[in-house]
Fold these 2 entries.
Entry 1:
Amino acid sequence: MKSALCLLMIAAATPALAGGTGNHSHDELAIGAPGKAGKAKRTVNISMSETADGKMIFQPASFTAKEGETLRLKFYNKGETDHEFVMDKMEAILEHKAVMEKFPEMEHDDPNAIRLAPGKRGEIVWTFTKAGTFAFGCLIPGHYEAGMKGDIEVATK
């Protein structure tokens, strides 16, 4: 019974995590879609780390983009533990966070997310297709609550 419940919860959460929005593109989310590296005219460098007082942070904790803009987001985990970066609408971030709390070892390969071990680097090339306020966070249990979250403001063209 417990296994069936777990499978049901995973199946119910899968559409929110997989990024489908009902649009014709399976990769497009409310926040946008994977971009082409050649179209990225700007890079945002984002570090992930822990502080001496126990906080976990992204630096910067917010950034801006323009509707239709493709950015290269470059990540460096300066910390001593794994961290991840997931960006989406706030509601989707909170749904994903709740699933991660129940299944902390869950691995996912979403185009709007990256997980890095200590000392590792990575990148996401992303096109922000819609204006609005979006969110990002590290959804490894406890990290979001320790401060690993931020905002993305996408301005209209």
Entry 2:
Amino acid sequence: MGARTKARKRALDLLFEAEQRRVDPVTLLDERVAVPVTPAPLPQYTAQLVRGVVAHLGQIDDALTTYAKDWPLDRMPAVDRNLLRVSAFELLFNDEVPDKVAIAEGVALATELSTDESPKFVGGLLNRLAEVKDTLV
């Protein structure tokens, strides 16, 4: 597993945990940097992803809500919602990551961590965001 793949998974873990515990993701991130809970320190890219998702959360959630036909965010599995946020951040706000990579990584996380239907849903939604991203940002 590549370094950025690991960083994406750690960002997803932090965003998911923050949502479940109803705490601010950046505060949780800062706590984990100060007092790590695993032997490996958090990758710098994990922090960039978490901070980026939080900074652009309104725009990301608006885009996901607009293009997730008949699937409001609160109806999505929490894992899907948060991995979509990470992938949407990369698609819309991180020019260093090619769209195809952001989509493939999102689908891979859905395949590994979510339901059997999730990879198709995640892939379809991320592909749609990639098609219209110039109108979103």
